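Something for you to look into today, if you have time. Could you write out one complete protein record for me, on any chain you like? Leave the record below and I will have a look.
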Amino acid sequence: MISSPPSSKIKEEKTGFKINQILIQLSLLALAVIGTLYYRLDDRPDVYQPLWLIGSFFWYAVIFASLIFIRNKTRLGYFMAGILSWVTLVFWL
């Protein structure tokens, strides 16, 4: 009977957790800056309607919450950031 777990290869990662955490935080900040510039440069008067303003508030709230959750090292922050980025990409296309 074997009492110890079987040996496995040590997995070598190309990037570490800390680098990935910093990278996604910088990406979220860049997304917020690009979104702000897009919103400011848009010359349509529709973007100042209440529905657009509520959507923008929700968008920034999710970015802010994702940054907080990522800083606290929770999976929810990464999940929210991923969903937000894909939804933003689809919206902008």
